[in-house]
Amino acid sequence: MKRKLICWLPLLLLIGCSQPTYRTTSLTPDKRAELLLKELTLEEKVALMMDTSQPVERLGIKPYNWWNEALHGVARAGLATVFPQPIGMAASFSPQTVYEVFNAVSDEARAKNTYYASQGSYERYQGLTMWTPTVNIYRDPRWGRGIETYGEDPYLTSRMGVMVVKGLQGTNDGRYDKLHACAKHFAVHSGPEWNRHSFNVENLSTRDLYETYLPPFEALVKEAGVKEVMCAYNSFEGEPCCGSNRLLMQILRNDWGFDGIVLSDCGAIADFYNEYGHKAYSDAESASAAAVLNGTDLECGSSYKALVKAAQEGKIDEKDIDKAVLRLLEARFALGEMDAPEDVSWTKIPFSVVASAAHDSLALDMARKSMTLLQNKDNILPLKRGGLTVAVMGPNANDSVMQWGNYNGMPSHTVTILDGIRNALGADDKLIYEQGCSWVERTLIQSVFNQCKSADGQGFTARYWNNVKHEGTPVTTTQVTTPFRFCTSGATVFAPGVNLTDFSVTYNSVLTPLQSGEVVFEIYTYGSGCLRINGEEVKRFRNTHGGRSLDYTLQVKAGVPYDIELDFEYFRSDAQLNFDIGFKQKVNIDASVACVKEADVVVFAGGISPLLEGEEMGVNLPGFRGGDRTDIELPAVQRELIHALHRAGKKIILVNCSGSPIALEPETKNCEAILQAWYPGQAGGTAVADVLFGDYNPGGRLPVTFYRNMSQLPDFEDYNMTGRTYRYMTQQPLFPFGYGLSYSTFEYGNLSLAKEQIKVGEPLKLTVNVTNNGQRDGEEVVQVYLKKQDDAEGPGKTLRAFKRVRIPAGKSVEVAFDLNGKELEWWDAQSNTMRVCAGRYDVMVGKSSQDRDLQRGSFVIE
């Protein structure tokens, strides 16, 4: 018997070795995840449940950082194509173009990940899990993060969001997913920013929840198959969103069948128990256990470290932890992140796609489609070249950073509005540039960098080390004679012989000002470091979320020398450092008006900036609080300058750059034309000029209501929809949702319904003939709205279909719609659900949401 066993032993070993393991690539991701899960200890499982997932070397699991961004291009990882901000893309009303944009973004993301992995780098902003899109409803124009959304309408947001996800996630190549997208921030979350870590949304009607706030998320889950959902910071009905059984378990998991990853917003679990947060739990163990038990698999943060202790204390069973870890492992296997790069087809996408000419062209196409013409008195636009003197003014005229928006990458080049207009002028035309004012403050900065001189000559002496601690002998020493514009994007080193990563530098000089006054040190950086003046540290910085602006102000005396020392250290991804020094000068409106007295027309590039509106910012200037706005008017200094130009008889074209609606009522009187340009990305200046000079016929439409003033806004902290957005607003706005002008005139024929009575489950078919009566080819956005006649509590109208249609000059196009399923659903108060309900409905078709632009018909669902 012993001899038989010895004879069989090699075969038994062979059979044992042939058993499938988590390394067997022919297995499905879920099976591989099950096999790997069995090999992990509790401590190893927990270490995989945070955004910076630790390696398990004994099992060959590499480190992985789940946190990556692609809001409108691969973000915070250096070189990338920068497309318009999402609110601008929403203005295109072109889901197909949105898909093309994010298909390009996914190519760049894969190429960049392949490069980083080849270098053995697994840092934040280098992975394959992209935390976008933001599909929260932009219910209030004061919310700073509304710039990241696709507007105020649930249907438009759903259509755009679905295309973002489809473009990012692409197709499965037969074995592996291209990328994973993330719907955020689930679900009732749209400001204020200043109290988001403790705010509780309560007393929200069930109707508003299901009719307004949930539809985009449901569409991304059910239609687009989004792989991740991020829960929000705030509480909902007394429960932190990342621990909300109703949101995550009942609605997302059970009702919608979502089986992907739920992840927390960054630091949201700590908000459960911290003093400044919700104070819903006493400690990290209880909070972390509650989050996992209520469906949050992955934490952006480090509170989940407490899960080991929580399991040991019986606050959570290890089997519940296993459910979350299983989803995380399955996702990593599905992306091919666990396998050899050569086995994954997506790694064959070349790095040359990043910031390629084709993607630059696509950025221009989307920027053009986002341009929204709001006013054009006496058809002053398009401008006619030939002997024309154009004055370009305003704080956004020559600002590339403004155009990049937020959550952005670093483009290889940017065409500013000033550049675009300069490039568009003819040989006989003349350009005058006079900034005139800043966004909010009544001062401007005049550079005095040329008044800096080090011991080695004009400018700053720079000493570089190929380590992050300024240690040892510098690898090189150079002289910088112009304001700093350093960035390692595109493998561009700060100086010859210096590393792309893991380097540090010290810049030294002496400023001897020629005049006394207030000097500002302006720094825009992605990295860490500090500023010292006369040996004293006055400003320290460490930016963890991409490029940020900061400044320091110093009173100086003429002729007195000031020792300046600036330290900088590489932090992660692509390092960036812009630095300049300048005197603050008071805005002189009369002098600025005099500078442009010869101009035939003034193009005033005004508005605000993503340095003022955005996510939980430290900005507290008049009209702004922590990234939100406290006043929706155009800042006073800009308004006064525009008024002075008007009084001087100037014809003014306002190019308004913002991610939020600006109350422009006075500007409608003082300006001949108003073009809403949003934050238009790297090609924005070209797109603006193309519209101003008629090389492109604008077709953008407003995805948000532009209000007349603050009196038209309800309480910012009230999430009920009464009085909000075009759907529930009873007052007349300045510019309505869906509105936008063209250089063509479009005439609508009669609305035709295939049937005026349909059954539940049957589509509503309708057509309308649209004629371009203008002299130019143009694009019209045909919009379809519904209203249930016997529903007095419901929206006055709500968008349910749209098409952006190109119509040649003098031609007519028949535009057809089939409204099915979700497009015909209405709120049913008896069942507290959205469903197709019997009843009589109004159907409205036209060029905007305002009544005068719409034709009405009616139909019955029986």
TrEMBL record:
Keywords: Glycosidase, Hydrolase, Signal
Cleavable signal peptide: 1-23
SMART domains the record matches: Fn3_like
Record PROSITE patterns: PA14, PROKAR_LIPOPROTEIN
Origin superkingdom: Bacteria
Record-level Gene Ontology MF annotations: alpha-L-arabinofuranosidase activity; beta-glucosidase activity; xylan 1,4-beta-xylosidase activity
Residue span(s) of domain PA14: 455-597
EC number of the protein: 3.2.1.37
The family this protein is said to belong to: Belongs to the glycosyl hydrolase 3 family.
Protein name: Xylan 1,4-beta-xylosidase
The gene coding this protein: xyl3A_2
